[in-house]
Amino acid sequence: MIVVMKMSATKEEMDAVCKRAEELGFTPHIIYGKERNVIGLIGIMGNREEAFMLENYPGVDKVVPISKPYKLASKEVKAEPSIVDVKGVKFGGRDIPVIAGPCSIEGEKQIIMVAEQVKAAGARMLRGGAFKPRTSPYSFQGLGEEGLKYLAKAGEITGLPVVTEVVNPFDVELVYKYTDMFQVGARNIQNFALLTQLGQTKKPVLLKRGMSTTIDEFLMATEYILSEGNRDVVLCERGIRTFETSTRNTLDISAVPVVKTKSHLPIIIDPSHAAGHWTYVAPLSKAAIAVGADGLIVEVHPDPEKAMSDGAQSLNPKQFITLMGELKAIALAIGRYM
Ligand code: PEP
Ligand code: MN
Question: Which of 64, 77, 242, 331 lies 20 to 30 Å (CA to CA) from residue 117?
Fold first, then answer.
């Protein structure tokens, strides 16, 4: 349920509503909007009938049930787009930030070199995996904490905020020390213990759609993070599994406009894991910008042929520079900036 406050409502009036909501068994979440503030009442144990009586409280405009299964992510709770700020890089506004870097951090020299290359090309954030969720246990699993240190160093040298994947709840504290944004990978979209733990941290989360996750399930997964108090979630469409085998996954570009009609959260596109091959990365990136994505995450490796993971889908620095130039023109055409 949501309690819609009047434009004139004071902080004291909102506090009184929150206090009563707690007495009724709900967890209140204040969502500050441009036009109006609302208080989301979350919790299955809450007394719904009594909650409607909150309409009589000073400063309250109305109390309405939320019709969607996802609550805090829904547009019913917040009509205007949310902006997620990762150390000054903003997702969800007019800018379209590009995150770039290798699939895996392979060494100090490699990650610093690629950080400098992608920065020079216009990337706003650096990616790199230290814990790799590989399909095969015999594939390279990442450098772990050593890799995180190299990533943080590359971020410091270049001034690029960094994002890296965390694969289980026990690593959250460790990864927190080195990263500016957590990535949750496609294979962990329903690792609810991990999502809950991330909801209790204060760093933004890049949540990737699972290979067979519907958009509603995707949004439900965000609730595990949002309902714990962390509002900084950026969604990422990275391709879903279909009958098509020419590409690694099928990029669902419709996910962008669909998510935007249902949710206020920003959504970016990962063309690399969708394509599976570098030749498709540029056209899919262009489609992503044109369809309204709030950013991109692209795999770039200094020497893709020698990459320890996902080399086939990685751009080399030269290809990335060319792509960035082309994307800027598309962004401008739709009134946005890269
Ligand atoms: C990755 O970003 O390298 C990765 C493993 O992505 P996904 O979880 O989308 O497969
Ligand atoms: Mn990868």
Answer: 331
Residue of 134, 141, 208, 300 best suited for mutating to test ligand 1, as the one with most atoms within 8 Å of CB? 208
The boundaries of every CATH 3.20.20.70 domain in the chain are: 84-333
Nearest-atom number in ligand 1 for the CA of 104 is 3
CA of 299 to the centre of ligand 2 (A): 7
Residue 35 has pLDDT above 90, yes or no: no
Instruction: Give the tens place of pLDDT for each residue, 234-267.
Output: 999 999 999 999 999 999 999 999 999 999 999 9
Q: Ligand 2: distance of its center to the CA of 298 in Å?
A: 9
For the CA of 206, the nearest ligand: 1
Q: How far apart are CA 195 and CA 228, in angstroms?
A: 9
Q: Find the length of the chain.
A: 338
pLDDT digits (tens, 9 = 90+) for 57-68: 999 999 999 888
Is the CB–ligand 1 distance for residue 209 below 6 Å? no
Q: Which string of DSSP letters, residue by residue, matches 248-312?
A: SSB--TTHHHHHHHHBSS-EEE-HHHHHSSGGGHHHHHHHHHHHT-S-EEEEB-SSGGG-SS-GG
185 lines ligand 1 (CB under 6 A): yes
Q: How confident is the model at residue 204 (pLDDT cuts 50, 70, 90)?
A: very high
Q: What's the rounded mean pLDDT across residues 107-125?
A: 98
The model's pTM is 0.95
Q: Which helix (H) or strand (E) holds 27?
A: strand 27-31
Model confidence at 53: pLDDT above 90: yes
What is the CATH code for 84-333?
A: 3.20.20.70
* CATH 3.30.70.1140 corresponds to the domain 2-64: yes
Query: Which pair of tokens denotes residue 149?
Result: 């240190």
